[in-house]
Amino acid sequence: MIDSPPNSSLKSGTPTSMDTLDTTDHKNARQPLQILEPVPLNKRPPPVTATSSPFNLMTTAKSMGPPTPPITPLQRRHKRCSTSAGSISLDKVAEGSTVDVARESQAPDMPGASGSRSDANDWERTRPRAYTKQYQRQAPDLHGKEEFGRGVWSLVYRAIEGSPTHPTTPLTPPTSPISGGPSVLSKRVLAVKAPSRRDAHRILDHEARILTYLHSFGKASDYLTPFHGYDQATHSIILSAIPLNLDTHVRAAAATARANFSTRTMFDPIVGTEEWSSLAIALVSGLSFLHSKHCIHGDIKPANILLQPSIGNNDNNSKEPYIPLYCDFSSSLITSDPAPPEISALTQDYSSPELLASLTNPSVPTLPTAAADVYALAVTLLFAAIGESPYAGAKMEMLKLSMAREGRPLQFAKAGDQAARVRKGGMVERCLTGAVMKDVAERWGVERWRGEVERVVGL
């Protein structure tokens, strides 16, 4: 028996299951479009209004049948949204700064936005800003130095900023590659303030919280060292590297003045009249900013004032080579804090007499005050005028402490080798007299002091 070919049924005309399927498909196939005749307006069905009942809407939809041709199905697409000035920018994330989404869209009366704000509530809600980038310790420089400084609780070393620790999720579709983005190693030099002992962790934690709070205000960058965040894993504070401080600068100017003595400048401040005037205005204004935010610095001294070069800075109107910025808030407190920490360290040459007196009574907590800040800054400016501590004549530490407790720094400076620079009726004396009064009740407040300085220097 010879088998018929597989397609013999097709040739004989006998219908097969394939033919049946094909016929069914043709029956269900979409009919060609028909040309619709125009319908006069008066004969068209009334439109469905918003007042129609759900039942009527469903009935109308069923009677209309499927749309011809059918609607193209919608697909989910990822769109790239453009951000406005108030939204999060990719540049901001690339810089490594933490973006608080909640604060970007706050009402005017909320913390972090313009308008009224409750500083006490701000402090209660403040938590240290996290630093989200990698950094590595820098090798010693040409002089063999790898540290900017070392204190009682911490050391500050050089570091190089790297790529983000937590890379962001890539965009869909991805953006065009940008040269110099976060994947490229940034050469920005950082100053990392790390604890030098285990019991310093809580102090640096508190300092990072204070810096986060202060930098939530717009003018903080005018008076404070740039703060980038806090490395919780190592209890380290990440700051911009500014190697020069006021102490080093003034001592260098004093050495130059001694080597090149001139009667023409012997009555001027050791750093020059214009620079000293600029320092006084900037530092008193900075202290006014701190106190207006209920922050007491607690350890103002020349070594805790960094000098940022004004060249290349946004402030092109500055005539002075440096911009003074406050740093080291390890002894600071917020006055609205219900449980402020006791002062962690102080420098006797710049401490007020009432603060030094409180050290003799261990039962009374030693807390810095706004008046003590004013006194400390005044002695700091006196140091910038004469090039040395007003108690430099003391040969023993006990004698120096006794002189500091007396609260007469101007009188001791006038008895020293640089008396001509603080002569009676001169600019330095008029700017500082009311700020170094021993009696706290007679000592100038920061706002009055600011007005006196501006009046004396002729602003």
From TrEMBL:
Q: What class of enzyme is it?
A: transferase
Q: What SUPFAM superfamilies does the record point to?
A: Protein kinase-like (PK-like)
Taxonomically, the superkingdom here is Eukaryota
A single Gene Ontology molecular function, please? ATP binding
Residues in coiled coil: none
Q: Where is the composition biased (Polar residues)?
A: 1-21, 49-62
- Return the EC number: 2.7.12.2
Ranges of residues in domain Protein kinase = 142-459
Q: Where is this region: Disordered?
A: 1-125
For this protein, the record's InterPro entries field holds: Kinase-like_dom_sf (IPR011009), Prot_kinase_dom (IPR000719), Ser/Thr_kinase_AS (IPR008271)
One Pfam family of this chain: Pkinase
What SMART domains has UniProt attached to this entry?
S_TKc (SM00220)
The keyword Isomerase belongs to this UniProt entry's keyword annotation: no
The family database entries (PANTHER family) matched by this protein are listed as: DUAL SPECIFICITY MITOGEN-ACTIVATED PROTEIN KINASE KINASE 5-RELATED, DUAL SPECIFICITY MITOGEN-ACTIVATED PROTEIN KINASE KINASE SEK-1
Name listed for the protein in its UniProt record: mitogen-activated protein kinase kinase
